[in-house]
Amino acid sequence: MVNVHVNGQERTYAGDPTMPLMWFLRDELGLTGTKFGCGVALCGACTVHLNGEAVRSCGVQMSDVAGKKVVTIEGLDPAGNHPVQVAWRNIGVPQCGYCQAGQIMQAAALLAKKPAPTDAEIASEMSGNLCRCGCYQRISAAVRAASKGA
Amino acid sequence: MTYHDNKTLVTISNVSRRGMLKGMVATGGLVLAAQIPGARAVLAYATGGDQMPNGVKTDPNLFLSIAKDGTVTIVAARAEMGTGAARTSLPMILADELDADWARCRIVQGEGDEKKYGNQDTDGSRSVRHWLQPLRQCGASARLMLEQAAAKRWGVDPSEVEAVHHEIVHKPSGRKIGYGDVAADAAALPVPTADKIRLKDPSAFRYIGKGNVPMVDLFDITTGRATYGQDVMRPGMKFAVIARSPVVGGSVVSFDATETMKVPGVEKVVKIEGTPAPAKFAPKAGVAVIAKNTFAALKGREALKIVWDDGPNKSYDSVAYKAMLEQANQKPGKVERNEGDADKALASAAKVITREYYVPHLAHATMEPPAATAQLTGGKLEVWAPLQSPGGARDDIAKKLGLAEGDVTVHNTLLGGGFGRKSKCDFAIEAALLAKETGGAPVKVVWTREDDLQHGYYHTVTADRFEAGLDASNKVVAWRQRSSSPSILSTFAPDPKHPFFIEMGLGLVDAPFDIPNLRVETGEAEAHTRIGWFRSVNNIPHAFSTQSFIAEIAHELGRDPKDLLLELIGPPRIVDLTKQVTTPYWNNGEPADSYPIDTGRLRHVVELAAQRAGWGRQLPKGRGLGIAAHRSFVSYVATVVEVEVDSKGKLSVPRIDTAIDCGFAVNPERISSQLEGAAVMGLTLARYGAITYKSGRVEQSNFNDYQLARIDESPTETRVHVVPHGIATPAAGVGEPGVPPLAPALCNAIFAATGKRLRSLPIGNQLA
Lengths: 150, 768
Description:
The structure holds two protein chains of two kinds.
Chain A: E1 2-6, E2 9-13, H1 21-28, E3 47-50, E4 53-56, E5 69-71, H2 83-91, H3 100-113, H4 119-126, H5 136-147
Parallel strand pairs in A: 1-5
Antiparallel strand pairs in A: 1-2, 3-4, 3-5
Helix pairs in contact in A: 2-5
Chain B: E1 30-31, H1 60-63, E2 64-66, E3 72-76, H2 85-98, E4 105-109, H3 114-117, H4 127-154, E5 161-164, E6 167-170, E7 175-178, H5 179-188, H6 218-223, E8 238-244, E9 251-256, H7 258-262, E10 266-272, E11 286-291, H8 294-302, E12 305-309, H9 318-328, E13 334-339, H10 342-347, E14 351-359, E15 371-377, E16 380-385, H11 390-401, E17 408-412, H12 426-435, E18 443-446, H13 449-454, E19 462-470, E20 476-484, H14 501-504, E21 517-522, H15 539-557, H16 561-569, E22 574-575, E23 597-598, H17 599-613, E24 623-632, E25 635-645, E26 651-661, H18 668-687, E27 693-694, E28 697-698, E29 717-722, H19 742-754
Parallel strand pairs in B: 3-4, 8-18, 16-17, 20-21, 26-29
Antiparallel strand pairs in B: 1-2, 2-3, 5-6, 6-7, 8-11, 9-12, 10-11, 13-21, 14-19, 15-16, 15-18, 19-20, 22-23, 24-25, 25-26, 27-28
Helix pairs in contact in B: 2-4, 4-5, 11-12, 15-16, 15-19, 18-19
C-alpha cells in the first residue's frame, strides 16, 4: 500500500509497486495533463513535481513516492495562472500542445529554484524536454518573461 | 476539370432545427441552411478544394449556430494538430465575415463525416487554402440573414441596417439589436440567393490577416485540460497494447500467452490478422494484450512468446538498399520531364559536374504516440482518436468491421502532432477490432514510442544524381537528374516501383529552372516497408539535393551561390510544364491560373531572405551562411541559415531568416509559428533523421537512437518574413513549405563555414 499526496489530496495505491507514477496519475487518477511521450525519461512530456523537484514521472516507481508530495500540471495553480502559464499564453508558445504541460512543469521548477536564470541556464534546464513542433524559441522567451514576472 | 463551370445556381432553403447541430443550439437559436453547389458568384478564384473527395461546403448550417444569448457556435470539422488552422484560423474566418465578436464565439469539434462537412483530410497544407473562400461565404450568408431579420422587426428597408460586431445597427436612427435577439427571426426568413451576399471589404476585417486571435485551445493546453487521443478515458475502459510483426508483411505463426495471463490485470489476449500488401491502413499482424491498465498490458506484452513468419520483406537492409538506389541512378531511367536534349548537351558540354545525394527514411515521431479508443455496443461503434482524416477513418473502420458508415461515429480529439502519421488510421482500426473482444467495454489501444518508431508509415528513402553541363562561358546549359525512391503509392496499390504523379509534383519535375536542356528520369525502386506522407514529403530530398547541387556548381565556378540560384531560376515568368512532363503536372491539386509557378515570386523570397539575413556579410572563422529556396504546396520559401562549427565539429545555429510568400496571409502569427517550427524540424532531420532497416526490422527504438533537436541545439533565433499580399492573391500552403529549404540551407552554410560538403543525410557525426 502506497500513500501519496497528489495536488494536495491524499491518495492510496495497492497495485504493482513497480508501476511508474505516470501510469498511476493517468490511468488510475485520470490526471491526463501528465503526458506519455517515451516511457524512458528521454522526452520530459510526463514531468511533474515530486517534493518540489521536476521529475519524469515515467521513471519513478510507485514504491518510491510513498509519503511524498506530487504536483501535476492540474495542481500547479488552481486558476491556471501560474506566471509560467501566463507567460506561455502571452507569447503563444504551443503548437500541438502535447509536450507543453511537461515544459511548463520543468520551467516552473526551474524558476522556483532560480528566479532569474541566464539564457544558457534556461537552455540547459529545458534541454530534457522535447518539442517535435519546434516551439523552442518561444519556450525560451516565455521562461525569460516568466522570470521577469510575465 | 470543372473549375470554370458557371455553377452559380444557389438554392437556399429554410430548414427546421430538428436534427441540426444536435444538442448544441439553444432554444430560439438561428440555424441556417444553404445548398450551394458552386456559388462562384462570390468566389474570387478557383482552388482545388472542389476536386478533393467530398469537396468543400458553403452551407453555414453545417458550421454555425447562434444562441439566444448571442453565443456563436462554430464547428471545426478538420483536424487540429498544431497549426492552429482547424480550430482557430478557419473558425476565425467565418466569425469575421459574420462580423461576430470572437470573444462570444465557441468552437466545437465536428465528428468524422465527409458527406456532411466536405473534405476533412487535414494534410497537404490545404486547410486555409481551400476553406478561406467557402467559410467567408458561410459567414456572409448568415450576416445577411441577421440583417434582414432586424430590418423586418423594425419595419425598415434592409439597406438601412448593417451588422456590426455582434449587433445589427439601423443606420439612420442608430438603433441596435444583438445577434442573439434576432437569431430566431432570421431562421424563419426566406434565405438570400448568392447574388445578394456581400463579402466584407478587407479593410473591415477584425481578425482575418491580423494575427490577433490566440489559439482556441491555449488555456486548456497550458493547464493540462486539453484532451488528446492518448488521454481519452471512458467509464469501464480497458487498456491494450499490441505486439506487432517486426517486419512489414509478416504474420503470427503461433503464440503462447501463458505467462502473459499470469500478469495481474491482464484480461485477454487477442490475435490480429495482417493484410497482404497493398494493405492501405489495415493493421499489421500482431497479438494484443487487453488489461485493466496500460502498465499491466505492457507487462503482459513483454511476457508473450510469439513465433513470427517474417514474410517477403525480411531481408530489407538500408545499407544494401542505398547502394541499389545509387546503382539505379547510374543508368537511364523512365523519363518524367524533358526539355531540349540534355543527353546531347551533356555530351558536348565544356565541363560536366556530377553529384549524388541521399536522404533516408524518416519517422514522424509525433510527441503523442498514436492511440485510439473504441466501443462497440448494439452493433454501433464509437471511436475517439487523433485523426488527420476523421471522415476517411470512419469509412475505413466501417469497411474493416463490416458495419454501415452510419453505425460508426468518429470523435476527433486534439492531435499531439500529426505530420502525416495520423493521416493513417491503422491504430483506430486496431481499437475497433479490439472493441469486438471486450463485451461492450471501451478499449484504448496505446502505442508506445517504440511502437511508433518501429511500426510507422515512413518518409520514403531517396537517392538523387545530377549532371550539369556547362558551356565555354560557364553557363549551365544542360541538367539531368536521376532520382530513385520507393513510392507512397505502394501502400495503397500494387507497387509502381516509380514515383507516381503526385510525388513527381513534390519537387522532382517542377524545379522552375531556366535551363534549355533539362531532363528528369526515375529509376526502379521497390518498397519493402510502409511508405507514408511525412510533412512536406518528397520535397525534402529533392530540395536538399537540388539546392545543395546549385551551391556546389557555384563553388566550382567561384560564384556566389545566391547569384547562381537566381540565374538558374531565371527571369520572372510563369512556367508552364504542360509540354515538358510525361505525366500531367499535379500542381498540388490547384488550378494553374490561381496558383501558377511564378519565378518572380520565387526570386523575390530569395532576395528578401538574403537581404534580411545580411547575405554577404563578413563572418568570423567557423561561421557561414547558406541559402536555399523551394516552391512547395504552392507557396514560395527561401531560407538563409547561419551556422557555427567549432574546432571539434560541434554545430550550432545562431540564426535563421526565412521568407515565405504564401499569398494572402490569413493568420500571420501562426504562419510565423509554423515556420519557426519548420526550422527545428528541418534541423532535426538534417542532423539526426534516419530510420534504418536490418533483416527487415527498424533498428531505432526511442529518442536515444532516433534523436530530435533539443532546445540547446536549436536555432537561437528564427526570423520569419512574410511577403504581404491582399486577399486577391490566393492563400497558399503554410504547414509544410517551411521544411524543405532548411536542410540544404544548413548544409550550404556548413560548407561555407568549414569547406566540408555533406551529401548524405543525416549529418550525424560527419563533422567530427
